[in-house]
Amino acid sequence: MTIAKHTLKLNTVQSESDMNSPNQTEAELFQALQAGDLSALGTIYDRYGEAVYRLALRILKDKSEAEDLTQEIFLAFWRNAKYDPNRGKMIVYLLTMTRSRAINRLHQKSTQQKLLQRCQRSIPTHAESNLMEKVSLNEVSQLITKALEEIPDNQQQVLKMAYYEGLSQSEITEQLNIPLGTVKTRTRQGLLKLRKLLKDLVD
Amino acid sequence: MQPSELPPNWEALITGYVLSDLTPEEAALVKQYLETYPELACEVESLQATLALFPLSLPETKPSEGLRSQILQAAKTELNVNHNEIFSPSTPVPLSSLSSSKPWLKIAGIAAVGLIASLGFFNYRLNQKLATAETDLSNYRLQAQLSNTQQELSRHQEELSRYQEALSVLKQPNNRLLALKSITSNISSSGSLVIAPNSEAAILTLKNLPDLPEDKIYRLWAFVDGKKVKCAKFNPDSQGKVLQKIPLQKWGDTTEVFVTVEPKEGLELPVGETVMKGSRAI
Fold first, then answer.
1. CA–centroid distance for B278 within its chain
2. pLDDT of residue B94
3. Which residues numbered 210-269 in B keep a CB inside 8 Å of some CB on A?
4. Could you give the CA distance from residue B238 to residue A202 in angstroms, rounded to a whole number?
5. A171: contact with B, CB 8 A cutoff
6. What is the three-state SS of B131-170?
7. pTM, whole model, 2 decimals?
8. Which strand (E) or helix (H) includes residue B181?
9. ipTM greater than 0.85, yes or no?
10. Which of B60, B18, B4, B28 is nearest to A195 (CA)?
C-alpha cells in the first residue's frame, strides 16, 4: 500500500504536462464522440488503444484477432456506447467490454450465455477517481504492476486464470488440483488486497 | 466504511460476488445486502473497477501502426453513409469568417456549429433507424403486394380460361341465341343464353345483376313443352356479371327461359320472384 501511494504521488506531478489532451476531460471527449467527432475517437484511441489491445492479445493470444477486437471495441464505443461518464472511468468501461467480448470469442459456443451474464454483472457502474484523470495510462500500468508484485504468486495465478481465461472456480480447481475452497479464498484475497493497494486509484 | 449488522464475512461475500464465484443462495444474500445497505454498492463498484484495471499490468505490447487509422477510417465510412443527406451540399460557414473583433460571436458560432453537428449526428442516427424501418416496411408491403398480385393473376387466369371455354362454345355452328331482359323496373339487368347443341352446352352471360342475400340464389329455368325445367343456378360476381357454361340437357330445344330468385337449396319448381325473361331472338 505504501508503495502504491508513494508512486502515485510522484507521478501525479509529472503527468500534468504529458497528457494527450490536457484540456479535455473524459466527459468532454465522450460528448464530442457522441456528436460524431472523429478526432475524439482518435484521442480516446491514443489514450486507451494500447491497453485494450494488450488485454485482447492476452486473452485471444493472436495478434490479428486482438487487433480485430480492438477495432470492434472502439467502433462499438463510437457507435453506441452505454457508457455514462458520470458513473465511471472510460478505461474501466473499455477494459470490461474488451474482456467480456474477448472471452465470448474464446468460448463463443459452449458458454456464451453464462459468460454474458457474468460480464453483464461485472460492468462497473461507479468508480470515481480524479486521480485517474490526472495520471497517464502508463503510470497507472506501473502502479498496478507494482501492486501485483505485493500479491502472493498463488493468488495472482488464480486471479489471472479467472480473469484472462474466463475459467470458473471449479474449472480452476480441476486444472490446479486444489480444493474449491482454496481457489475461492485465493482469488478473493488476491482481489481484496489489490483493491486495498489501489485504493487511491479506484475509490 | 463499516456497515453494521452485516455478517462478519461480508467482505468475502461481496468479493465473491464480483468474482462470480458465489452459490445462487449466497448471490441472493448479497443482492439483499445491497438493497438494504446501498453504501455497500460503493465497495462492490470499487472491487469491480479494481478487477477491470487488473489487465493494465500486462507487459507493454503495441498494436500495428495502421490500426488507429484503420479504426478512424471505418468510423468515417459509417459516418459518411448518410452524412451527405443530412448536411446539404451548400457551403458551410467557415468559423474564420466570423468577425474576429467580436469574440463572443465566434464563441456563439462555435457553439452553434457544435450544436448543429450534434443535431446532425442525432438526425443521422434517426435517419438510419428510419431507413431500416422503412426498408423493413417496404419489404413487407412489397411481399403483401406480390402475394395480392399473384392471387389476382391466378383469378384472371381462371377467368380467362372460362372465357376461352365459352368462346369455343360460342364459335360452334347451329348456335341459338336467347336474349334475356329484366322484367322488374328497378333492375336493368340484361344478357343472353347461347345454346350450342354441337357442344352440348349453353353459355349464359348476364350483366347488372344485383347481389342477393346469403340464403338466396338465381336460377335459370326453361320452358319445355309447356313445363318449367330447371337449368342452372348462379350468382353474379362483384360487378354484377355472370358468365357460366351450362351442360345441355332436355331443354336444348327451348325457346323461352326465365330467371328467378330462389332459396339456395334445390327445388324442382320455381317458387320465387321472376326477375328476367328471355326468348329466341335468332
1. 47
2. 44
3. none
4. 78
5. no
6. HHHHHHHHHHHHHHHHHHHHHHHHHHHHHHHHHHHHHHHH
7. 0.49
8. strand B176-182
9. no
10. B18
How large is the greatest C-alpha to C-alpha distance in chain A, in angstroms? 52
How does A113-125 read in b/e, with b if 16+ C-beta sit within 10 Å? eebeebbeebbbe
The amino acid occupying position B247 is: P
* Nearest CB partner across the interface for B47, out of A148, A168, A191: A191
The answer to whether the CB of B191 falls within 8 A of the CB of B241 is no
Query: How many residues are present in chain A?
Result: 203
Integer Cα distance of B209 and A122 in angstroms = 75
Contacts of A30 (CB under 8 A, 6+ apart): A40, A81, A83, A85, A90
- Note whether B56 contacts A144, CB cutoff 8 Å: yes
- Specify whether the CB–CB gap between A161 and A172 falls below 8 A: yes
Sequential DSSP letters for A101-140: HHHHHHTTTTSHHHHHHHHHHHS-S----HHHHHS-HHHH
Return the pLDDT at A114.
Answer: 52
Is the CB of B84 inside 8 Å of chain A's CB atoms? no
Select from A45, A29, A25, A26 the least CA-distant residue to A37: A29
Q: Is B190 exposed, middle or buried (0-12, 13-18, 19+ CB in 10 A)?
A: middle
Q: Are B197 and B248 in contact (CB under 8 A)?
A: yes
Q: List per-residue pLDDT tens for chain B, 282 residues long.
A: 444 567 888 888 899 998 888 888 889 988 888 888 877 888 888 898 888 888 888 888 889 989 999 999 998 887 776 455 444 444 444 444 444 444 555 555 555 555 555 555 555 556 665 666 666 666 666 777 777 777 778 777 777 787 777 777 777 777 888 889 888 877 788 888 888 888 888 888 899 898 888 888 999 999 888 888 888 889 898 888 888 888 888 888 888 999 998 888 767 888 888 889 888 754
CB contact under 8 A, B47 and A192: yes
